[in-house]
């Protein structure tokens, strides 16, 4: 059999399986953390499950385990379809798929054991960083190798976003983690003091920008037109938004460091760029809304489409709220409060997780050769559980964040702080119960989805991977 | 009952001015007036400690700004609906857009009476189901009032939901800026 005439999807299937496993692991850890906030005894005095260790476990498991696996899976799937060619090196793709799982698994396990560089979202110690960098560069070789060997002349916009994800994350990861090792588990960062903070948040916010936004926009730009059965409304707008996004986003990191010892001009640049960033973000949102226009019946008939449409609402909301929180006068209230946590989750759950769920519901029946999902009803229940969960979660944390923000800063007539730290903690307890309820709803939806996907696979009775022939390219677009 | 009321409104003869001044304007008064009495006489309760009482001048100023923001929000939302309808509901008029805003905001404005007891937790508990009802009304009212089919109405409802959520968030941001600049609680900034 001539394999070159078929796409190669086995690594994608494996990565989607891993995506769902990481969703359950990472979201369960999140729900457990939310429980610890209201029932601190739940750490049972076991160091590995104390809040300080479980929290980075949760963030790394959901961002890099769940999000990373989904991004690599969809990049492998879509780059072949948009280039009309098999993956550049299927074997290297498997190395990437397995290497990524091992890297993240070892990384999060080491966090539970107490090994951490203490840099947010870059907590892994140097040996894991090196391994992750090698896997990521291999991902780049597979992706750009496939682009280079494409049979079709234009490079579809989803590939621009995936390409930015790969290049910029490699740059951020390597530069931010530059360190001089002094043992197998510890290293000194090469940056000092405020410089270290600036580099860290240059990395930190661009991890949000290029990992959690550019990558997922790549996923989105592939999935949405396919699901809607319509071309992107304005291809030109999508490319303009891409370049505006890339040029603007890279500057905004220092808005995490307002009112700190970094230079004032840097804070101002970050603030201005954050506001400008609304334009490319909303241009993408407009493009999405207009692309969906016409596929009117899809919301009723396609459960995956519901997730993708709602993900756009949360994308719009988060990309407006983020710049607003970067304004110094708002930031002084919101920073170091639950408001920020609520904002992050409206993006991570409402945007990233929703678009991932929608995409996976779309891809899995195709990948396993099924005619459709095992149960649309279960998918619909998942949708409502997830939507209610995220709404309860963010409303609770908005309220909690505002209360915390005011209490952090309130002073009496003598200029003394009006509230103690304990006062503030006691005030937030009811909101943290709501947060736990919202998180549990979201987690139970993910469990339902996993069951639904398993049953979809089980009823398909196909040997995996399903072979899909590469279609011929229109002669006018051939390279 | 809700569907019947929306249908009744769709079949009624009225102008945007009649709808606004005869109904919505009076409803819009409820939140700022309640907020004034709540802020000045009871004070904002954060959950612990004494409530934060605001002076008469501050309470009046905040209530007036709140009223103006609600009025502006009403008109901007109506105009946005009219703008969106070019894609989703080509037969809709400005009058229909006013009707949608009226239906969607009625529970929220009535819920504004909760401001008489300004506790953050109380507001979350009381207003969450009210916002959920308003969310439902967006989707229930658009197909009927804007004379479009159900599927298009759902799409437009999603867009409008996104717009209103963003407007709500910006109101929170504007409040934070006001607090930092001395309007509201006494903050050490």
Describe the protein:
- The complex is a heterodimer of chains A (479) and B (189).
- Chain A is mostly helical and 479 residues long.
- Chain A has 15 helices and two strands.
- Chain A has a two-stranded antiparallel ribbon.
- Chain A starts with 9 loop residues before the first helix and ends in a 19-residue tail after the last helix.
- The mean pLDDT of chain A is 94.
- With 189 residues, chain B is mainly alpha-helical.
- Chain B has one domain.
- Chain B has helices at 2-11, 16-42, 56-88, 94-111, 120-145, 150-180.
- In chain B, α2 runs parallel beside α4.
- The longest helix of chain B is centred in the middle third of the chain and has 33 residues, at 56-88.
- The radius of gyration of chain B is 18 Å and the shape is elongated.
- Chain B starts with a helix and ends in a 9-residue tail after the last helix.
- Chain A: Keywords: Cell membrane, Copper, Electron transport, Heme, Iron, Membrane, Metal-binding, Respiratory chain, Translocase, Transmembrane, Transmembrane helix, Transport.
- Chain A: It is found in: Cell membrane.
- Chain A: It is an enzyme of class 7 (translocase).
List keywords for this structure.
heterodimer, A: 479 residues, mainly alpha, Cytochrome C Oxidase, Chain A, two-stranded antiparallel sheet, 15 helices, B: 189 residues, 6 helices, EC 7.1.1.9 (chain A), cytochrome-c oxidase (chain A)
